Amino acid sequence: MKFAIDLTQCENHGQCAIVAPGTFSLDGDGLLSFRAHADDEYVSPELDASDAGQAAEAADMCPMQAIRLIG
């Protein structure tokens, strides 16, 4: 399983970083750290079972519904 983040929809609320700090983080400016790797959409590498569970929880918690699961 992978996750994708629509970076045009994400508003950096940080709920993903709160529920899944091992998978999501904010940078020093309070922006989702994946913004350094993509402009419009970030797609993660394949996740292990633990990270996949955290990504699913983060997707549920995202107020903008910017995170989706793939696979």
Describe this structure in words.
The chain has a three-stranded antiparallel β-sheet with strand order 2-1-3, with helices on one face. It has one domain: 2-Layer Sandwich (Alpha-Beta Plaits). It is globular. It has helices at residues 15-19, 49-61; strands spanning 2-6, 41-43, 67-70. With 71 residues, it is of the alpha+beta class. It has two helices and three strands; from the N terminus they run E-H-E-H-E.
CATH class: Alpha Beta
Give me the strand/helix succession. EHEHE
Beta strand %? 15-25%
Helix count, per DSSP? Answer: 2
Describe the largest sheet: 3 strands, antiparallel
Organism: Nocardioides panacihumi
Protein name: Ferredoxin
Pfam family, one: Fer4_15
Q: Short summary of the structure?
A:
The protein has 71 residues and is of the alpha+beta class.
